[in-house]
């Protein structure tokens, strides 16, 4: 056996042993090869699959889905990724992650298509169970927490009679703890809604300075109470951005309140600049303790915190939510930080063309 034959044998063994459903089709989608996993996934025998098209178990998605798929793999000659609803031979529905890549010849023409499917039905069912649990739990927590907030507020405002400074301090601590609980519950609900596509970001032309001012109004007092400055250099002649005002204010609230929370002296400076690539960048720079390079990758992940954030209350959802919102807005979010020199959180938004 020569080297080429050995390599081909390795390839065949690897593909036929793969857990993922793998097929190869001609340029028109007719199946010329299928591995054993394709039979296990679809319920059709290999003899029934060969010579057919994937419509044998597919054709459950909207017309637009397949139009985009064919445009991607046949016209653009790029890999297509997606999730599809399919039907097994016995009529059972299943959900699969799908990857289709064109195999090109020396003239850059499509010779074959290689399709890989993985049944993710159980994963989707587990995700739905998790979302249902979060929604039920969060709603059950928010109702009494909101009522508690109202009663504590009435006590602090003197509606129940005058209270001593010592009692007022304890009630204020209870009020702030209840506020953290409400924020946590709202974050749980936001994460669940965004991940399931229930929250839609609707960008419209806006002045970024006006959005920032809307966020700062509610946070200036918080900064002043900690002896910090909170400034914004609005800049001049800045282009409008495409943004969902409410959602971007939510991002700014997360970033600015974090900066206030972890900065002991100095303050927070907000600046803007056009990056030259059709985006406007907003920077929130603080004089806090900074974050080490090793910990930076954790910041925008769900339930992850790093550096000074790791010892503070909360589950690390604010930055994760911010990343989801900015991604849905067509921008990016990142951080530059150095221990002992503070942090700069930045995000970009598309400018109005």
TrEMBL record:
It is an enzyme of class 2 (transferase). InterPro entries: BphY/WalK/GraS-like, HATPase_C_sf, HATPase_dom, His_kinase_dom, HisK_dim/P_dom, HisK_dim/P_sf, PAC, PAS. Its EC number is 2.7.13.3. Residues 80-132 form the PAC domain. Residues 7-53 form the PAS domain. Residues 136-353 form the Histidine kinase domain. GO terms for cellular component: plasma membrane. It is found in: Cell membrane; Membrane. Keywords: ATP-binding, Cell membrane, Kinase, Membrane, Nucleotide-binding, Phosphoprotein, Transferase, Transmembrane, Transmembrane helix, Two-component regulatory system. SUPFAM superfamilies: ATPase domain of HSP90 chaperone/DNA topoisomerase II/histidine kinase (SSF55874), Homodimeric domain of signal transducing histidine kinase (SSF47384), PYP-like sensor domain (PAS domain) (SSF55785). The keyword Membrane applies. GO terms for molecular function: ATP binding; phosphorelay response regulator activity; phosphorelay sensor kinase activity; protein kinase activator activity. It comes from the Bacteria. GO terms for biological process: osmosensory signaling via phosphorelay pathway. It is a multi-pass membrane protein. It holds the Pfam family PAS_9. It catalyses: ATP + protein L-histidine = ADP + protein N-phospho-L-histidine. This is histidine kinase. The lineage of its organism: Bacteria, Candidatus Woeseibacteriota.
């Amino acid at each position: 056996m020569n080297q080429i034959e050995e390599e081909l044998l390795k390839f065949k063994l690897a593909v036929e042993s793969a857990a993922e459903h793998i097929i190869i089709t001609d340029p028109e989608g007719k199946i010329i090869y299928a591995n054993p996993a394709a039979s296990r996934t679809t319920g059709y025998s290999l003899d029934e699959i060969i010579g057919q098209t994937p419509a044998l178990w597919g054709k459950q998605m909207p017309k637009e889905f397949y139009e985009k798929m064919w445009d991607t793999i046949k016209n653009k000659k790029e890999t297509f990724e997606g999730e599809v609803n399919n039907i097994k031979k016995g009529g059972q529905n299943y959900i699969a992650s799908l990857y289709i890549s064109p195999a090109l010849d020396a003239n850059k023409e499509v010779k074959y298509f290689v399709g890989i499917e993985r049944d993710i039905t159980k994963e989707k069912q587990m995700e739905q169970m998790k979302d249902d649990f979060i929604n039920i739990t969060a709603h059950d927590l928010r109702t009494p927490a909101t009522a508690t907030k109202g009663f504590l507020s009435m006590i602090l405002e003197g509606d129940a009679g005058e209270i001593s400074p010592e009692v007022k301090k304890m009630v204020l601590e209870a009020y702030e703890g209840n506020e953290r609980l409400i924020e946590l519950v709202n974050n749980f609900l936001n994460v669940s809604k965004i991940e399931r596509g229930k929250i839609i970001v609707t960008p419209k032309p806006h002045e970024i300075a006006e959005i920032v001012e809307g966020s700062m109004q509610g946070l200036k007092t918080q900064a002043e109470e900690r002896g910090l400055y909170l400034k914004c250099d609005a800049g001049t002649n800045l282009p409008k951005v495409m943004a969902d005002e409410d959602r971007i204010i939510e991002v700014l609230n997360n970033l600015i309140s974090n900066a206030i929370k972890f900065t002991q002296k100095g303050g927070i400076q907000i600046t803007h600049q056009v990056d030259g690539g059709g985006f406007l960048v907003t920077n929130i720079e603080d004089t806090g303790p900074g974050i080490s390079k090793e910990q930076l990758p954790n910041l925008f992940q769900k339930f992850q915190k790093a550096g000074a954030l790791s010892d503070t209350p909360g589950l690390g959802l604010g930055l994760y939510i911010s990343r989801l919102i900015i991604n849905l807005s067509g921008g990016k979010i990142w951080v530059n930080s150095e221990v002992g020199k503070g942090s700069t959180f930045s995000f970009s938004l598309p400018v109005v063309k």
